[in-house]
Design a protein that fits this description.
This protein is an all-beta fold. Helices cover about 0% and strands about 35% of the residues. Strand 9 and strand 10 form a beta hairpin. The radius of gyration is 27 Å and the shape is elongated.
């Protein structure tokens, strides 16, 4: 990709002068391949070397290649983005897949197979201590009882429960006061 060729024409002559640290071109090897991407500051805490990735070339969306994050910069570029490099496993890669092509890269940043996930709306906050969270469980006597919980990650309208619940527990949704009713 040589987008600045018109501005470099005067420099690309016999005995032409080029300023120090000016990049004229980059010679790229076709193998091995890596994906270069950028992530935002919000995504940075979850990204680290060693994470697995699925690479889907734009040229063939039915092809999925495996990859692994090999590098994440710790300092943002001038646009506030962080560079990420993903090494591509070329075992199933066709010959037509070459450097300079585009793709989608889906990186798995967190996976917990045994996680208990509940709607965030079921979690209540202790009136005396905002740090304490709890849910109401339906007991054997059909009377709800309080159970303190330790929360983990949140996504959309769901939250992971790290401690305090077991599979099969029956959670009672928080009863919202209906202000339209009059006693």
């Amino acid at each position: 990709k040589w987008s600045e060729v018109s501005s470099l024409t005067s420099k690309l002559q016999p005995f032409g002068k080029v300023a120090a640290n000016t990049v004229l071109m980059t010679v790229v090897s076709q193998r091995p391949l890596q994906v270069e991407a950028k992530i935002s500051e919000k995504e940075l805490p979850d990204f680290k070397s060693g994470l697995s990735a699925d690479i889907i070339p734009t040229a063939d969306e039915d092809l999925t290649l495996s990859g692994e994050v090999s590098k994440v910069t710790s300092v943002p570029d001038s646009g506030g983005k962080y560079d990420v490099e993903i090494e591509v496993d070329l075992a199933k890669a066709p010959e037509w897949l070459v450097a300079g092509m585009t793709c989608d890269a889906n990186v798995t940043v967190y996976r917990q197979q045994s996680a208990i996930v509940i709607p965030k709306s079921y979690v209540q906050t202790d009136e005396e201590d905002d740090e304490k969270k709890y849910v109401m469980l339906l007991g054997d006597d059909e009377e709800p009882t309080r159970r303190d919980v330790k929360l983990g990650r949140e996504k959309d309208k769901k939250v992971e429960v790290l401690n305090g619940l077991s599979e099969g527990d029956k959670i009672v949704p928080e009863e919202k006061e209906d202000k339209s009713k009059e006693d």
